[in-house]
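Can anyone check this?
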Amino acid sequence: MKKNLLLTAAFCASLIANETSAQTRYLDADFFSSVTVTSNVVYGNNLEVLTGTPVATDLLMDVYEPAGDMLTDRPLILYLTTGSFLPRYINQSATGSKTDSAVVEMCTRLAKQGYVVAAVDYRKGWNPASTVQDTRTETILQAVYRGLQDSKTCVRFFRKDVATNSNSFGIDDTRIAVGGQGSGGYISLAYGSLDKLSEIQLQKFYNFTSGAYMVDTAMLGDFSGLGGNAALNTPNHAGYSDDVLMTFNIGGAVGDSTWIEAGEMPIVTMQGQADFFAPFQYGIVTVPGTGGFVIDVSGSSDISRMQEKFGNNNVFKTPAITDVYTTRANAFNTANDATYGNAGDEGLFAFEGAANGNGPWEWLDTAATKAEAVAWGQDGDVILGNFYAANPMFEYLYVTYGYAYARDRAIAYCDTIQGYLSPRLYRGLLEQPFSVEEFSATEVSVYPNPATDQISFVSEDSNPISSILFYSLEGKVVRTESNINATNIVVSNLDLPKGIYFATVRFKEGTTVKKIVI
């Protein structure tokens, strides 16, 4: 049984800040001068359908760690790559690998701040060229679903490593965030919001050609990648939790805005306001090489409005974050409120202008890109042309001023991503009063959740509950129920302000932390 150590925000902050009088670990850039990278770590194996026939494939990641770090309990960040759910170059694009320029840059930056960061690849494969709309929609939805399963497999891999392999990567497995760029953003957003069968059984996800819903969990396995038909899914690392604390998105979208509900985890979302591929609000996904309409999704503006509606991002609001990146984001949201409705939202950064809509943080070596594309059997000029079409400012600056100037502009956008994301990662991973739900031998059902005046706690294996402590997001005990000694208790007359709370449910042996919403 794991024991759960809960640290208050003040204690965490003082512990970290005291490492150095000059900088704050996890907040300041270049806290470490360099990183070490362990490449092609196998975190699982599952069946990929890239060729149409399921083939067992190793799931790989590159793990970045701060060089010379003495800590062995660092928060973990999973960084999911882009690529339209097809391999780089096969997708007619110059991006789509864990070695893409922006992926390496962001993973290096975060590791230099003190995190352990995994650049995670996942299974690819769908049918963008099909002339049947149901086929295009179904296959890309299943591709996102497999990516979700793989990302959860990766989280369980790390927890298993902590439990059985002496924590070889030196992580704190109660403090994990999952983020993604482009198509990886679709996966990270699903990670934090897709958890009910009803959410994938919407009319938009029904295949009227075959007469069935597009994602069949009995065949493909559950959201965690467990179960399903052995010919389509191979479970990995069963028995370990894949809960995380927060997610972030750079240029992705969520399959449907109804996936986001009250009480779900914080989301930081960053996107081009004029993104051509993923809509900033609600609209059609555009993927190069498709035969037409693929699917309708909700982008960062919609996501932010839903998070604001339910208070899911309130952890970022008190105390307010006031750096220059936040000021810029808030100014855009306020000035464009009539169009997007995001004034007052927390966790949304919009990159302005059409020229910055589709990944201005990407750059490449043109000669190397063309050579690699040819090696993959693709036309290097077409691949390069597609990259320029999506990133016109890089082409203009490269042609006019040279490679170094164009690269430096892209890196400046990585500065912005890091600047906006870092204080929110710190708040979500280090300053929240609790880490992940840490299960003892006993699970607890909580209902209704959200609650109003009363809430029930039920021990599911007849292990009596001894006490329940209710904590605010600031780590203060706001209510205590003691001397219970029962497997079922109804807590009445809550009399708590609306918001998110954590309930520490204690047994004779073990503790479970549940997030509740009033």
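Reply from J.R.: I decoded it. The radius of gyration is 23 Å.
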